[in-house]
Design brief:
With 113 residues, this protein is of the alpha+beta class. It has one domain (3-107): OB fold (Dihydrolipoamide Acetyltransferase, E2P), CATH 2.40.50. The chain contains two helices and seven strands. The chain has helices spanning 3-11, 62-71; strands spanning 15-22, 27-30, 36-43, 55-61, 77-84, 96-98, 103-107. It has a five-stranded mixed β-barrel with strand order 1-3-4-6-5. A hairpin with a 5-residue loop joins strand 2 (27-30) and strand 3. It is globular, with a radius of gyration of 14 Å.
C-alpha cells in the first residue's frame, strides 16, 4: 500500500482505497443533466492460481470522470480512493464513488505491436 493510501485511510473514515488493473475499457457518458460520469472495473491480484481475482466497480463524476474516461485504457494499473456508494437497483453490486481527484495512473498497459 502506498504512503498516500495509508494517509487517506488514517485520516478519512469511510474512505475505501483501491489498486488494480482496469478489467475493461472505461464506460464514459453524460447523464441526462449533462454531468460527465464514468464507470471503471478495477481487478486486483488473485490470491492463488485457483482463485478468482477480486474486482471493484468505481464510479466517477465531473472533471475526474472526463479525465479518467478519456485518458485510461483497459489494462492500465491505477489506484485511488473513494467512499462506498449506496446500493442501487440497476447496479449488481455497490460501487466505490470517487468525488475528488483521487485516481492515479501507475502503469500504462502494454500495447502489442
Amino acid at each position: 500500500m502506498t504512503q498516500r493510501q495509508t494517509e487517506v485511510q488514517a485520516g478519512d473514515p469511510g474512505v475505501r482505497p483501491f489498486r488494480g488493473w482496469l478489467g475493461k475499457a472505461p464506460e464514459f457518458k453524460r447523464s441526462d443533466g449533462g454531468v460527465a460520469v464514468c464507470r471503471l472495473v478495477v481487478v486486483g491480484k488473485a490470491a492463488g492460481p485457483a482463485s478468482k481475482p477480486p474486482s471493484v466497480g468505481v464510479y466517477l463524476r465531473g472533471t475526474e470522470a472526463v479525465r479518467c474516461g478519456l485518458g485510461l485504457h483497459e489494462g492500465d494499473l491505477i489506484e485511488g480512493a473513494g467512499v462506498l456508494g449506496s446500493k442501487r437497483k440497476r447496479v449488481s453490486r455497490r460501487e466505490v464513488v470517487v468525488e475528488k481527484e483521487r485516481v492515479i495512473l501507475r502503469a500504462r498497459a502494454e500495447v502489442a505491436a
